[in-house]
From TrEMBL:
Any one annotated GO CC term: plasma membrane
Transmembrane feature ranges: 22-43, 92-110
Residue intervals of the Mechanosensitive ion channel MscS C-terminal domain: 187-261
Keyword Cell inner membrane: yes
InterPro entries: LSM_dom_sf (IPR010920), MS_channel_1st (IPR049142), MS_channel_C (IPR049278), MSC_TM_helix (IPR008910), MscS_archaea/bacteria_type (IPR045275), MscS_beta-dom_sf (IPR023408), MscS_channel_2nd (IPR006685), MscS_channel_C_sf (IPR011066)
Species of origin: Pandoraea aquatica
Self-association and partners: Homoheptamer.
Protein name: Small-conductance mechanosensitive channel
Primary localization: membrane
Mechanosensitive ion channel transmembrane helices 2/3 domain: residues covered: 78-111
SUPFAM superfamilies named among the record's database cross-references: Mechanosensitive channel protein MscS (YggB), C-terminal domain (SSF82689), Mechanosensitive channel protein MscS (YggB), transmembrane region (SSF82861), Sm-like ribonucleoproteins (SSF50182)
């Protein structure tokens, strides 16, 4: 005999089904919220811990600190989001596949941006310069490095002007770092008149640079004749100094070499030219002789 289902029985079944699912999905929702809050809290705390740990290390490069903090923060957040989606039965493998396909499409559309990211990554990994270094890249980029990001590098030029350069324009050019080495060589030239005492001038210059405490003894200073021109003997003064003393010593030597040379009776000649004027009355005679 067939069982007859009354409306009351159907209502009780639906109510029971809804109640069971409400409890199930309600618990899943609460678990997802808890996982999300705890995961984001852990990501922030872990990022702060990494920041404090790296800040305590004086030997760690400051240019890598923001990158490492961002990687730690977003890695934990992404893992948290995937765990939240798994609470609702979402297949995370399919999400990753969709994200990969979307990333490929976005990458093709943003090739220039990805080139800047690749160049920024190479700058951060290979570190041809760091924060505070004065660098030049090609003929257009020059300044003191303030920050190296994934997309751009910010600098301050010699006039105090803020400069923001895409990483690709820096990585694709020859990079000159003026702050990397602890010592630097400078060259200063001075002209001695042809009839002056060249040995006395060179000895005075050698003594002067030796007495300056900012000039390094190793490598030793060099005083040499660079060129003999029509009006002077060009003497080259080469000295090494610490990077912090370079510009002060350079400007002082530019002035002191003149006073040193003049102190031993030598002079700094000016280029001269002798002009000979042929008498005009001889010109017709010369013309007649040719005919």
């Amino acid at each position: 005999m067939a069982e007859v289902t009354t409306p009351l029985t159907s209502f009780d079944a639906v109510t029971g089904f809804l109640a069971a699912n409400a409890v199930h999905y309600g618990l899943s929702f609460l678990q997802a919220v808890v996982i999300l809050l705890v995961g984001f809290w852990v990501a922030k705390r872990l990022s702060r811990f990494v920041h404090k740990t790296l800040s305590r290390s004086p030997h760690f490069d400051a240019t890598l600190k923001p990158l490492i903090e961002s990687v730690v923060l977003w890695s934990v957040r992404i893992i948290t989001i995937i765990a939240v989606l798994a609470q609702f039965g979402v297949q995370t493998a399919s999400i990753i596949a969709v994200l990969g396909a979307a990333g490929l499409a976005i990458g093709l559309a943003l090739q220039g941006t990805l080139q800047n990211i690749a160049a920024g990554t190479m700058l951060l990994v290979l570190r041809p310069f760091r924060n505070g270094d004065y660098v030049t890249a090609g003929s257009t980029v020059a300044g003191t490095v303030e920050e190296i990001g994934l997309f751009t590098t910010t600098l301050t030029n010699a006039d105090g002007i803020y400069v923001c350069v895409p990483n690709n324009q820096i990585w694709g050019q020859p990079i000159t770092n003026y702050s990397r080495n602890a010592t630097r060589r400078m060259e200063i030239t001075v002209g001695i008149a042809l009839d002056d005492d060249l040995d006395a001038a060179m000895s005075a210059l050698r003594q002067h640079v030796s007495d300056d405490q900012r000039v390094l003894g190793t490598p030793a200073p060099e005083i040499m004749v660079k060129q003999v021109s029509d009006s002077a003997v060009i003497v080259n003064v080469r000295v090494w100094s610490l990077l912090g003393n370079y510009w002060g010593l350079y400007w002082d030597l530019q002035r002191n070499v003149k006073e040193t040379v003049e102190g031993v009776g030598c002079s700094l000649p000016y280029p001269t030219r002798t002009v000979m004027q042929v008498p005009t009355q001889t010109l017709p005679d010369a013309a007649q002789q040719r005919h």
